[in-house]
Amino acid sequence: MYQRIISAAFVILFLTATLTGCATQQAAAPVEAAAKPAFEPFHGIVDMAFVKQHVSIPMSEDVMLVDARPYKPKYIKGHIPMAVSIPDSQFDKMTDRLPADKNSLLIFYCGGLKCKLSHKSARKAEKLGYTNVKVFAEGYPAWMADKSHYPAVSAEWVKAQIDKGADMTLVDSRPKRKKYDKAHIPTAISIPDMQFDKFKDQLPADTSRLVVFYCGGLHCKLSHKSAAKAMAMGYTNVKVFAEGYPAWTAYAGKASTTAGAATAIKAGVEEGSIDHGEFKRLVSESPGSLYLIDVRDADEYKKGSLKTAVNIPIDDLEAKIKTLPADKPIVFICGTGARSGEAFYMVQDVRPQLKNVFYIDGEMTIKKDGSFTLNKPI
C-alpha cells in the first residue's frame, strides 16, 4: 500500500509539473497533450526516507545505490555517498558491476525530476531479471537540498583540485602513526577522527572554505564521522572522498591528459564547457560557425531544439565520433549538462586529437521555435 501511494503521488507530480526529460519546453498546447508527462516514470518510485534507510557505511551486500548520471562531469564532482557509478549510456557495458543476486535491492537515481536516466536504467535492470528495483526520482538535487547531507567525490576530482591549487583543505582521518605517516595524499593534513576534538584547530578559520575528508576506502567510516563533526562546527562546504586512499593510489599513477580547447572561444568554469554568454552570442550572431549536436533522445529532440543542431543521442554517439567534422567548433547540448558533458569526455577518450570541442554545462530549456534559456547547472 505504501509503495502504491508513493507511486501515485509521483505520477501526479509529473503531470502537474509537465516534466521534460533532459529538458525541452513546448509552446502552448491543448490541455490533453499538456497533461501527458514527457516520459513514462518507472513504476517503483521511492522517497528520501527510503534512500536514507538503506545508505550505510559500508553498504549492505544486498543493496546497491546506482548513480545513472554520466561519470564525467557529474559523478566525479558530487554523488550520494556509497553510490556506484553506472551511467545509463554505458549500462550495457557495465552490467558486471551489478550484484550477482537478482533479488538485491537496486536504487537508481540521477539529476532530479526532469532526468529520465535513472528510469531508463531501472527498466534495463528489470529486463536483466532483477526483481527489487527502485528509482529515487528526486535524485541528487534533493539529496543536496538537505543541509545535513554532504556529497562524495572521486579521485579524479580530488587530483584536479590539487593540480590547480584550489583553496581546499584535504584531511586524512586515518590514524597518524599507523597510516598517515607511512603514506598519504599530497597536501593532506592529519586530523585522526579519534582525536578530532584535539586537532580540530587545524581546520581553516573560514567555515565556508572547502574541506574534504578521506580515510581507508568504502568500508571506512572515519572520514564520514569527521565530516559530520565539521558540519556540526558550522563548516558549510564539506565533502568526502569516500573511496579514499586505496582509490587514490590506484588512480594517481595514471596519465590524465585531455584535448586542449581552442582559445578563440571563451571557456566556462568547468573543463570543456563553453561560457554561457559566449554561446548565446555565437548562436545569435553566427550560428553556422558552430557544429551543434543535441545528444538527447530523439523524442526529446523532436519537441524542440536549436535550429542548426543535429541529433545524435548519447547512446549512439560513440560509434559516430570518428565521423565528426574538425573544421569548426563542436558544442554538445542537452537540458541539464549531464549528457552533453558525458559527450565531451567521450570524445576525449575516443578521439583526443579532435580540438575545439565544448559542451553546455547548465540547465537549458528549449522551445519548439528554437529559442532557449540557460541557467546555472544543478
UniProtKB/TrEMBL annotation:
Positions of the Rhodanese domain: 59-148, 164-257, 286-367
Signal peptide segment: 1-23
InterPro entries reported for this sequence: GlpE_sulfurtransferase, Rhodanese-like_dom, Rhodanese-like_dom_sf
Key words, A-Z: Signal
Gene3D superfamilies reported in the protein's UniProt record: Rhodanese-like domain
Protein name, UniProt field: Rhodanese domain-containing protein
Source organism: Desulfosarcina alkanivorans
